Amino acid sequence: MKKIALLYHEVVDDFKESGFQNNDNLAYMHSTEVFEKHISIYKDLIEKQNATTTNEYLFTFDDGGISNLRSAKILEKNDLRGYYFITTKFIDTKGFLSKEDIINIHKNGHTIGSHSHTHPMIFRTLSKNHMIEEWKKSKNILEEILGEEILSCSIPGGDSDEKTYETAKEVGYKYIFDSEPIVTPRKFDTLEIIGRLSIKASVSDQEFLEILELKNLSSLQRKRKIKGMIKKMIFPIHQYMQNKKNG
Ligand SMILES: [Zn+2]
Predict the structure, then answer these.
(1) Which range marks the domain in which residue 51 is found?
(2) 236 C-alpha vs ligand 1 centroid, how far in Å?
(3) How many structural domains comprise the chain?
């Protein structure tokens, strides 16, 4: 069975209202209209596929911006639920969810997970201890708010290495979502690694449908690989730019 996890961030009509405010994030901010269109394209496809597929689609949202309230409502209206990954340091700050919001989203049937505590931009450059601290602190905060165990997390910035998975497992997560365009779940001991297809705001309806149908999966994987190689080559510059972003 394939797990086709879609990666979203904000669903906003004014990008200043929600989430991390930097120009790079604009590429991941969807208008309400576009997001609603995506849901209707998805529903049409599922209806067409009927029982002929065992593929599971997951809607995931990183960062914990206040606009999660909007995307959650849209999903609910369509009998769907999402995964919301919260950067816990920003809870109750401007542009981000409050504790109360998180409780409400959870109450309405969505899954709440950790997106680290402070959102370090290149997660894999952290030491093992620092990673454990990020994973543990955010897990504890969310568990305190919701009164239940938090089993899922997603990697801030999407860049991971083996110790990213190792530390998430050690802290007690069962599912980790990364940003690799891979739809077959991987295993790291007891931890399940779930890849994601990042949905940019610039994709056309047709391109979105092709993403859902996995028509361009190998090209996405190629692009991701090339991007990774470039990042490695320009690593010091990349690191500097990323660290500047979220302060
Ligand atoms: Zn993020």
Answers:
(1) 3-245
(2) 20
(3) 1
